From TrEMBL:
UniProt protein name: Integrase core domain-containing protein
Provenance organism: Lentinula lateritia
Location of the Integrase core domain: 2-91
Region span, Disordered: 119-149
Basic and acidic residues: compositionally biased ranges: 138-149
Classification via Pfam families: rva_4 (PF24764)
InterPro entries associated with the record: Integrase_dom_put (IPR058913)
């Protein structure tokens, strides 16, 4: 749980700054300019189909870079990969936590700790300080502060912090059979190879008098009044926008 582990909090900020916020801004762009309806299950399916592999590749690249970066302080400027290698040289390879009771593992490696309070519009996933409005001194201390837990606190706040899980948006395959799904995939490849750009979806050059934008905007803070501009290099993100438009155009034609 990222609300109980400050190291995970810092990691989420890195995930956001390295690649997560760019994808987030891109999806806002699709919603604002290119017809994405985030409440449409078929649109979510199309997002998964077109971009999930690339997002996973970005996650994998981040993981590799993260495990190769030096750690200051107790890490003595060694990377996680270095520490694993040196540890195995010194101590050998061994089974993790052999014969350790699961309750002890949960106590030592679980989510127990001091909770971080946050405002209702924040998830804790990749929110650095520059995405939040500055609060008053006392209010800011109360929100950002980390308070110690007591049994009384746990009882009083059980109904607040132990709420039911929020369901993730569901996606649904719009095609009723493998035949139509295969036809969609084939037609999409042919459309990409032909270079044809559907009109009416905000991607054709005739629809942009001042040129296609090279950045995206993420709104944050109370009522979304603060804007964070995220660079979306044209060579990377415009082809992805075009792929979305071509996929959406074909899906609309087939269903």
């Amino acid at each position: 749980s990222s609300t109980h582990n400050t190291r995970i909090e810092r990691l989420w900020v890195e995930v956001g700054s390295q690649f997560g916020r760019a994808w987030r801004a891109f999806f806002f762009r699709l919603e604002g300019l290119h017809g994405l309806d985030r409440k449409n299950r078929h649109h979510l399916w199309l997002l998964h189909t077109l971009f999930l592999d690339e997002i996973n590749n970005d996650c994998k690249e981040f993981q590799e870079n993260w495990n190769a970066h030096p750690i200051s302080g107790e890490g003595h400027d060694c990377s996680p990969n270095d520490l694993i290698f040196l540890g195995r040289l010194e101590h050998g390879a061994y089974e993790d936590c052999p014969d350790v009771h699961v309750d002890l593992l949960n106590r030592c490696y679980g989510v127990h700790g001091k909770p971080i309070e946050r405002q209702t519009h924040q998830t804790g996933a990749g929110h650095p300080a520059d995405e939040e409005e500055t609060l008053g001194t006392e209010e800011g201390k109360e929100w950002h502060g980390i308070h110690g837990e007591t049994d009384t606190d746990n009882e009083e706040w059980a109904g607040i912090f132990n709420q039911e899980a929020i369901e993730a948006p569901k996606h649904a395959d719009p095609f009723q059979s493998g035949y139509y799904r295969s036809a969609f995939t084939t037609a999409l490849e042919q459309l990409k190879e032909s270079g044809q750009i559907p009109t009416g979806y905000g991607i054709h050059h005739t629809e942009w008098d001042a040129g296609y934008p090279s950045f995206g905007v993420i709104r944050s803070g109370r009522r979304g009044r603060k804007e964070l501009r995220i660079a979306l290099p044209d060579s990377i993100w415009r082809p992805r926008s075009l792929r979305w438009v071509q996929g959406l155009y074909l899906m609309n034609q087939l269903i």
